[in-house]
Every structure is written in structure tokens, then in C-alpha cells.
Amino acid sequence: MQPLSNFPQTIKTKRLVLRVVAPTAENATQIFNAVEQNREYLTAWLGHFGAIKTIDDVIAYLAKRANQIKTNEGVCFHIFRDDKVIGRIWFFNAKDNSCEIGYWLIKSATGHGYMTEALSALETELFKFGFDKIILDVDAGNTPSENVAKRNGYKLEKRLPMASWAKCVGKCDSLIYAKCK
């Protein structure tokens, strides 16, 4: 696999821009505000938002993600609609020509097909780049996330009993969806 530093840093769709953002105070402030305004909604399924308490926490997070490009582990994109952050999509565990994708949207951005569009654009670039398989690990009961996987043609590969935890449901199964080139 070629170095991830060669992976596109910006991906444009009809309505969205997926962009790798630098760990600056300006970028971190916009992301922090989006998280803060949607904290309750986001933490229902994604517990890691509890660690984001300040703008400096976001800067550190962005710096960590920037380093993952250098170490060939993955690439993190924030999703912009009309120059406003509405979510994030990233690929990680990049090895052996496969990777995993994770994603989230702020509450007001759900139900408009944005994540379906973002996922489609990212997977197109991943397959062009040389990846053969993309994996999505979805918590059982997270119907919107499952629907994104299904709308994008991912197939349920396996169910891992009680392998995950989410604030809104507690211990739950992990649903492993996959799509091959």
C-alpha cells in the first residue's frame, strides 16, 4: 500500500466537503462548538466524546489524527456543509489493503442522506487508492448507522455478541458490516 500521505486531503461531493483539518485553534473551536451543542445526542452511541472537554482537547485530538497519516494508520475527515462542521468520517486500522470506517453527524444533519453521501465518496477514494475491503463496526440498535451501511451496499459479515457498550443501550452486540472492491 502506498503512504497515506498520498491520500486525498479533500473530497468533494454534490453537497459536502470532506476535509482533513489542521490542529489549529480556529478549527478546534468550530469542532468543539459542534460537539458541545450536540453532546447529549453524540454521547448516546459514542462514549469518547466525554474526553472532549476543552478546545485544547480537540487540538490534541486533531494532532493525534494528523500523526496517524504519517504512521500510515488512517485519515480523519471532518464533514462540512456550507462551511460548517456537521460531522466526521475517518478510516483507521489501515493494513493489508483493508480498513475500518467510523462516522458521526450532529443531530440536525441526520435524515438528509449526508452520511450516505460522505461514506460513498470516501469508499470510492479508498478503492481507487488500492484498498480491497472496508469494514464498519456498528452497535446493535443503532438503526440509523445500520441503515447507512445497508444503503451503501455493505453486507453483515458477523455479529459479535456483547462486544460493545453504548450509553443509550448498555452492553450490546457489534455488527460487522463489510464491502469489498
Rounded mean pLDDT score: 90
- The helix-strand sequence is EEHHHEEEHEHEE
Structural class: alpha+beta
Q: How much helix is in the residues?
A: 25-40%
Number of helical segments?
Answer: 5
Number of strands: 8
Query: Order of strands in the sheet with the most strands?
Result: 1-2-3-4-5-6-8-7
Calculate the terminal CA-CA distance, rounded to whole Å.
15 Å
Low-pLDDT regions: none
Shape summary: globular
Radius of gyration: 16 Å
Strand content is 25-35%
Q: What is the subunit organization of this protein?
A: single chain
The main β sheet shows up as:
8 strands, mixed
Give structural notes.
This protein has helices at 25-37, 39-43, 55-70, 114-129, 143-151; strands at residues 10-12, 17-19, 75-81, 84-95, 98-105, 133-139, 155-166, 170-180. The protein is of the alpha+beta class and 181 residues long. The two termini are 15 Å apart. It has an eight-stranded mixed β-sheet, with helices on both faces. Helix 1 (25-37) crosses helix 3. The chain contains five helices and eight strands; from the N terminus they run E-E-H-H-H-E-E-E-H-E-H-E-E. The model has no long low-confidence stretch (mean pLDDT 90).
Keywords:
single chain, 181 residues, alpha+beta, eight-stranded mixed β-sheet, 5 helices, globular
Brief characterization of the structure:
With 181 residues, the chain is an alpha+beta fold. It is built from five helices and eight strands; from the N terminus they run ββαααβββαβαββ. It has an eight-stranded mixed sheet, with helices on both faces.
